[in-house]
Design brief:
With 327 residues, the protein is an alpha/beta fold. It has 11 helices and 16 strands. A hairpin with a 3-residue loop joins strand 8 and strand 9. Helix 1 runs antiparallel to helix 9, helix 2 packs parallel to helix 9 and helix 3 crosses helix 4. It is globular, with a radius of gyration of 20 Å.
Length: 327
């Protein structure tokens, strides 16, 4: 099955190309694309401050550097970079047990006795656990704020959530996001960090300068952001359709942007599906166990990697038929 890999919109590519050759389309020479992009991000995250950076990991590095106590991370379904960056910064890590990536308040309660109450503690998570199930951000936020814990949300997979449940600064103290490929706000490069606490950015000016982005990427973000809400909504609907028509799906009743299928022989299933789904020169199959997905035997089908033009019913039905054949 031939499929297209996710790309920025044609309008975004045109704007980025013009900026790349020095033909900026901005009429007002007193404002930059960086400023426009940051203003638009603050509007969608409900945060008062924002900085573009050169990558999602750069944003995560700055966010984690604001933690002086312990950093809580999920035991699965997150991003392994959380752990690597915390270790680089010599920040002690506490791992919270999850329900296949989903954090519950009872498990968080168990971590409190190990926190250093004299320092700033943080919890970092991804909006969608393993990209397959939305975290209960509002409940988690209330718990964190009641216990003096900073909530850091990696919203790379959920920015511009139409329901306002994810990537919302009303709940998360810091939002970080990659705008690289194949993320939701996809300009194939860059990222951002947003917050209401200006001191987090002021105290990390050296890092922000080290991780600064360029006007080409900024012009892409400023343009592509207009399409993201609809794109994400279409992606969630397509993933839901697949979840409802496949067997052995983990978190089948929750919103997500990929499908994780439990299977006793993931190596064979992954091999067969990789041979079936041709996604340009890219892939859309992840074999589990995998910390970034789930620590179970299974396969993650990365619907998030598909170009939005591919999310039609005909393609989805063909995918269901192919996957079911090998289950």
């Amino acid at each position: 099955m031939e499929l297209k890999y996710k790309e920025p919109s044609l309008e975004t590519k045109k704007i980025m190309s013009r900026v790349a050759v020095g033909k900026t389309p901005l009429e007002d020479k007193d404002i930059s694309f960086k400023e426009i992009a940051e203003y638009k991000i603050m509007d969608i995250t409900n945060h008062k401050h924002c900085q573009l950076v050169n990558s999602g990991n750069g944003a995560i590095f700055i966010a984690i550097s604001s933690i002086t106590g312990h950093l809580i991370i999920p035991d699965q379904g997150a991003w392994h970079g959380f752990k690597q960056i915390a270790r680089f910064l010599n920040i002690p890590i506490l791992t919270v047990k999850t329900n296949f990536g989903l954090i519950d308040l009872e498990s968080l309660e168990d971590t409190l006795k190990n926190l250093d109450s004299n320092k700033i503690n943080g919890l970092i998570l991804t909006s969608f656990a393993a990209y397959t199930a939305e975290q209960k951000i509002k409940e988690i936020s209330k718990f964190c704020h009641s216990n003096g814990i900073i909530l850091i949300e990696d919203a790379s997979g959920a920015i511009c959530d139409l329901k306002g449940q994810l990537a919302n600064g009303k709940y998360s103290d810091i939002i970080v996001c990659s705008t690289g490929s194949p993320k939701i706000l996809n300009v194939e490069d860059g990222g951002f960090i947003s917050t209401n606490d200006k001191s987090i950015l002021d105290d990390n000016k050296i890092l922000l300068n080290s991780f600064k982005t360029n006007e080409i990427t900024a012009s892409g973000i400023a343009t592509e952001i207009a399409f993201v809400s609809k794109n994400l909504d279409d992606l969630i609907k397509a993933t839901t359709y697949l979840k409802n028509n496949l067997n052995n799906v983990i978190h089948s009743d929750l919103r997500g942007i990929n499908v994780i299928i439990k299977d006793d022989n993931p190596k064979d299933l992954a091999w067969n599906l990789k041979n079936e789904f041709k996604l340009d020169s890219h892939g859309m199959i992840t074999k589990c166990p995998n910390y970034n997905r789930l620590k179970i035997k299974g396969v993650a089908i990365e619907i998030k990697n598909l170009n939005y033009s591919e999310l039609n019913k005909e393609n989805l039905d063909e995918m269901i038929e192919i996957i079911t054949k090998y289950q």
